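Postdoc handover notes: sequence design on the structure in folder B. Input tokens:
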């Protein structure tokens, strides 16, 4: 009998171990993103002073961090729950990509000495823009809800669903979420006072537009229809 015959087959990795591995990977991406944000911002300190608290750069990083975090939550839910490999793949890409981007934005905000999250509402930095929003606008131009964001009831519904119904609702909510963020991304790409912020916003706009096309095709393949866009 050979040595190979004496070897026992390797036991499959338990589900909880896979979850720990994926979680560790996501945390590593977040830490790398934060470090990259700090390093890039430090390299530009001679180019520009820290943007003011009410600047486009600061407001964008604060608001988009919040916007991204909901996408990260939904993508993580889909990655763990779906059995559809195509959805699992796109969910993993969204989760890891946007986690890294949040890390970069939070790194810049920390370096600038700004609050990590917005205070008193959203999108006040988009002055002169007729952006889509839900609810009243405050005196300083801020709104209570950013476009594309799922409501608490919609998130509860998503969490209750399983199987094909879950898959379709995830795709619909994520598509609307991406569509809602594009206007913010384009505004920052054109007007942010800091070059690295403009570059990141531009890259995000391209990525989310491409992902939106993919999400729409996946919805159609599953005999579904998209939710009304944030601008409707």
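Designed sequence:
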């Amino acid at each position: 009998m050979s040595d190979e015959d004496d070897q026992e087959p390797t036991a499959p990795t338990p589900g909880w171990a896979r979850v720990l591995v994926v979680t560790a990977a996501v945390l590593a991406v977040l830490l790398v993103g934060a470090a990259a944000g700090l390093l890039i911002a430090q390299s530009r300190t001679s180019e520009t002073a820290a943007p003011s608290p009410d600047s486009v750069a600061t407001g964008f990083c604060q608001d988009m961090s919040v916007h991204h975090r909901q996408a990260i939550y939904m993508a993580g839910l889909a990655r763990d729950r779906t059995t559809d490999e195509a959805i699992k793949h796109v969910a993993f890409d969204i989760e890891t990509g946007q986690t890294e981007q949040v890390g970069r934005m939070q790194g810049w905000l920390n370096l600038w000495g700004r609050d990590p999250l917005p205070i008193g509402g959203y999108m006040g930095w988009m002055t002169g823009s007729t952006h889509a929003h839900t609810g009243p606008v405050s005196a300083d131009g801020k709104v209570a809800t950013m476009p594309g964001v799922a409501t608490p009831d919609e998130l509860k519904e998503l969490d209750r669903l399983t199987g094909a119904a879950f898959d379709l609702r995830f795709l619909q909510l994520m598509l609307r979420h991406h569509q809602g963020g594009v206007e913010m991304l384009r505004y920052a790409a054109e007007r942010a006072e800091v070059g690295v912020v403009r570059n990141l916003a531009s890259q995000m706009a391209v990525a989310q537009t491409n992902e939106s096309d993919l999400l729409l095709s996946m919805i159609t393949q599953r005999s579904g229809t998209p939710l009304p866009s944030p601008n409707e």
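Context for whoever picks this up: The chain has one domain: 18-42+53-116+145-221. Don't rerun without checking with the PI first.
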